[in-house]
Design brief:
- The protein has 301 residues and is α/β, with parallel strands linked by helices.
- Helices cover 35% and strands 14% of the residues.
- An eight-stranded mixed beta sheet has the order 1-2-4-3-5-6-7-8, sandwiched between helices.
- Strand 5, helix 5 and strand 6 form a beta-alpha-beta unit.
């Protein structure tokens, strides 16, 4: 067993003892008392010495569904909304019996651009899938949920999941690096000039914003590479990311025959995540919309 596995499983064993302290949580209300285990995803990788990307693991509470959610907060690829789009999501997942992993991927605010974010998400999926049996996870039930720019990242995780960035770093991969289902929430989708979220595009692509690159990273133009079920949620009054990002993606998925569910709200804005706010309280979207989709699409198979 390598150094990473020994370290992680020692923490995981200790963490399991704390599960009895769990207090039931409902949407947007009090939180369960869970202390996550932090995993340094690049530990032991010589080519990534000095990189400190972390992933927080929240163990499932009560009955384990065998599913896992890799959670990618938003923040324009510049910073990360780690609470309402990270921790709160993991706590909700844990209450549902799902293993939650909050990925604090590299961002431009710390000088990182593509392919850093994609490397991080592929490495996270590799770690979860290669250690699925130890986590109590079904290796075929590993999903990724992302918010805003994080929504773009989970789309990239699927679109580019069969093209290993890890092998370029000298990491041998024996498992699929693609998620089994994805949930982009009010996502950045397009890099096209008319609807692109410019800050996200600048953070991701940096100085090379050629037409070729803008097309490659416009996920609506890559829909033919989406091979897993997709849950998509957006609001028409989103004042940050134009909701046409989501409608164009939905239209492209329909043309390509991608299994998907698209919910477009008249109002809701941007950035609600699973936090303590009016939209979450009024719609209970995670319990009323997302959970039934997971039951049918993931647990029903």
């Amino acid at each position: 067993m390598n150094k990473f596995k020994k370290t992680f499983f020692a923490f995981a064993a200790i963490f399991a003892l704390a599960q009895a302290a769990f207090a039931k949580v409902s949407s947007g209300t009090s939180s369960p008392k869970i202390v996550p285990v932090t995993i340094k995803i690049w530990d032991g990788v010589p080519s990534m010495k000095g990189q400190s990307t972390k992933m927080d693991y929240y163990a499932p509470q009560g009955k384990n569904t065998g599913a896992a959610l890799l959670i990618c907060p938003g923040g324009s690829y510049h910073h990360l909304g780690v609470f309402h789009e990270g921790k709160d999501v993991a706590l909700w997942a844990a209450q549902k019996g799902i293993s939650g992993f909050v990925l604090k991927y590299r961002v431009s605010g710390h000088g990182h651009h593509h392919p850093a974010m994609l490397e991080d998400v592929q490495r996270a999926i590799q770690i979860i899938r290669e250690n699925a049996s130890e986590y109590g996870i079904d290796a075929n039930k590993i999903g990724a949920i992302g918010f805003s720019a994080g929504g773009h990242l989970v789309l990239m995780a699927e679109v580019f999941g069969r093209e290993s960035e890890l092998e370029k770093l000298g990491i041998e991969t024996k498992v699929s690096l693609a998620p089994n289902f994805i949930m982009p929430i009010y996502p950045v989708v397009s890099m096209q000039d008319d609807i692109a979220h410019r800050r996200s595009r600048n953070s991701l692509l940096h100085k090379d914003q050629s037409e070729e690159r803008k097309n490659l990273f416009s996920m609506e133009l890559q829909a033919q590479k989406l091979k897993c079920p997709v849950f998509l949620l957006a609001a028409k009054d989103d004042g940050t990311v134009n909701y046409l990002n989501s409608t164009r993606l939905s239209e492209a998925m329909s043309r390509e025959g991608v299994e998907s569910k698209f919910i477009l709200c008249e109002s809701g804005g941007h950035g609600f995540g699973m936090g303590n706010n009016d939209f979450v309280h009024s719609t209970k979207w995670n319990d009323e919309w997302l959970w039934p989709w997971l039951e049918e699409t993931v647990f029903g198979k």
